[in-house]
Each structure stands twice: as C-alpha cells, then as structure tokens.
Specification:
The protein has about 240 residues and is an alpha/beta fold. It is about 30% helix and about 15% strand. Helix 6 (about 190-195) runs parallel beside helix 8. The chain starts with 11 loop residues before the first strand and ends in an 8-residue tail after the last helix. It binds D-xylitol-5-phosphate.
C-alpha cells in the first residue's frame, strides 16, 4: 500500500461535539453536516483516564440517524478494549484509543479492526512517536494531542509541532495510508502550524462553535488555512 505524502492526504475538518449545546445535540449534528464538516468526533471521557466525564455509546446512537457523516469515538478511557463493540454498534466508524490507556495496544488495535471499524491511536503530549513504531501496520489514523486531554477550550501546544512532523515521517516510512489528526486548541490562529507540520485531520471544538461567522464560515476558514499551509492549494498571497 503506497503511503500518501503529507500534502496528498486530504484535509478534513472534524468538529468535536464537546463544545456543542448538549440540550440540542441532534440539531447541532445536523447543522455541522450542513456547515460542511467531514466527520464528527465524540470525546468520550471516563473520569479516570482524564479528569472529566462526558457521554457514552447511547448518546452517540441517539443522533446516528440524523446525519450521514462518519463518527469517530475518541476514547479517553482506561482499558477501552471492553467497550469497542458498544461504540461500533452506536454507529462509530473510527475508534481512537490512547496508547497510555492500553496494556495490550497491539491486541486492542487488532480487535478494533475485527469489529469492522477503523483503528486509530492517540498520543498524549508527553508520549513520543516511538510508542507506536511497532503498530503502524495496524493503524488507519494517528491522533497527536495538542493539549492535555480532558477539556475543551485549552491553549494549543505549539511544542507539539516537531512531534507532528516526526509522526508524519513515521507514516511516510510505513508506506501505509494513515491519516494524521490533531486535537486541542485548533483555531484559525493555530491550524496552519499543525498543517505545515504534516497533519491532515483537524479536530476543533471551542474555536469552531464560537466563530463569529458561524459554523459554515468557521469550517470554510479552517479548511482554507489548513490547505494553504499544507501546500494543498496555491496560497493567494
Ligand atoms: C480534549 C478534547 C478537546 C476537544 C477539542 O480532551 O479532545 O481537544 O476535542 O476541544 P477544543 O477545540 O476546544 O480545544
């Protein structure tokens, strides 16, 4: 399988529902689709792996039929292997587990593939790319956290950009079609640095939902900035 160079991996804007109005979750999901989002990320938190508690598979399942957008479950939970089937049955096509939460990461990624979902792995800021060097053949996605997980609205860690570039090189060396996603503090001011470092999937919550121009304008601006800085389109100067 030939790997796509960073500039050939398509840019995708991935809203995080963590910043959505939970009292209108169905409407928010429908609005995100109309706004041009490429997929939706569900930040699943267990109150142990991260100091916050959010939603489980039943909440995700409740809005599955409202949109045709792919769902990715960002499982910020300890021992995620026991929950994989629940999130697939809820309608998630991508399951992202944290390397720090998996005693047997190689086995867990294989279990995700066996469910029919796409396996992804997330790296916390302190975790180096070497943690996934021996599982690249099992992956469809690597998520480099650009904040410490647990809450939206945090400051983007520019110090993660060299790591994004290292992961991008690892993907290229693997020769596999693996997407490089970033998550945390992604906004019009920060997306360019992450794109230039090699990311092609961009999770955004607070910056997207609080954009003065609304969700459609926010999605459009983030996509344009990412494509310009990643060399996927001519920069109009
Ligand atoms: C952190 C969460 C957030 C969320 C995006 O655990 O994973 O990164 O998805 O939040 P913002 O875009 O507000 O940083």
């Amino acid at each position: 399988m030939l790997s796509r160079s960073p500039s050939s991996r398509p840019v995708e804007i991935v809203p995080s529902t963590l910043a959505a109005d939970f009292s209108r979750l169905g409407d928010e999901v429908a609005t995100l689709e109309r706004a041009g989002a490429d997929r939706i990320q569900w930040d699943v938190m267990d109150g142990e792996f991260v100091p916050n508690l959010t939603f489980g598979p039943d909440v995700i399942a409740s809005v599955r039929s409202i949109t045709s957008l792919p769902f990715e479950a960002h499982l910020m939970v300890n021992s995620p292997a026991a929950l994989l089937r629940r999130f697939v049955d809820a309608g998630c096509e991508f399951l992202i587990v944290h390397v720090e939460a998996c005693t047997h990461l190689h086995r867990t990624l294989g279990q995700i593939r066996e469910t029919g979902a796409s396996p992804g792995v997330a790296l916390n800021p302190a975790t180096g790319p070497e943690a996934i060097a021996h599982v690249m053949d099992l992956l469809d996605l690597v998520l480099v956290m650009t904040v410490n997980p647990g809450f939206g609205g945090q400051r983007y860690l520019t110090s993660m950009e060299p790591k994004i570039a290292e992961v991008s090189r690892l993907i290229e060396e693997s020769g596999r079609d693996i997407d490089l996603e970033v998550d945390g503090g992604i906004s019009p001011a920060t997306i360019g640095g992450a794109a230039a470092a090699g990311a092609n999937l961009f999770v955004s919550g607070s910056a997207l939902f609080s954009h003065p121009g609304g969700l459609r304008e926010a999605t459009k601006e983030l996509r344009r900035l990412a494509e310009e800085r990643s060399g996927r389109r001519e920069d109009p100067g």
